[in-house]
Amino acid sequence: MYLLQTVKDEEYRSLAEFRHQIRRFLHFSEQAARLAGLEPQQHQLLLSLRGLAASGEPASIRAVAERLQVQHHSAVELVDRLADHDLVTRSRAPEDRRQVLISLTARGEAELEKLAVCHLDELQKNGPALVAALESLIRRNNGGN
Question: Mind giving me the DSSP string for 44-61?
């Protein structure tokens, strides 16, 4: 059960600032992807594949759709476009031939690496403002501690 609670002006300011900082980073990310010749969701898919690989999880269409918060068929379309540009490949899972696994090609790895470097640089520069905005909200939700 949720208790009714009044939101204070400072909390609204903190929420607005947090949302602003997230949007600034997302705008940067979208622009960087487009400059690299990718749509933002294509970049997100490449990054998801690399993150899944780094964690040892299989990169199935289902896993990618979950990571991107899109429908299965939308993930398939994104994979199709990336495969057409030789950035990803498909294979069948050895233990379940019905399952399609996606992996980065060498070209996909190279494009993602360039984008990752510029994203990490951006976070070094502007990440502290994002962290400060989030910490302000966390302190509020932890009773000000």
Answer: HHHHHHHHHHHHT---BH
Beta bridge partners of 100: 92
Q: Is 6 left (phi over 0), alpha (psi -120 to 50) or beta?
A: beta
Closest to 91 (Cα-Cα) out of 67, 77, 48, 83: 83
Q: How far is CA 44 from CA 33, 64, 68, 107, 135, in A?
A: 9, 9, 7, 16, 25
Residue-averaged pLDDT of the chain:
92
Element (H, E) at 1: none
Rounded distance, CA 145 to CA 106, Å? 47
Two structure tokens written together for 135: 């910490």
pTM of this structure: 0.87
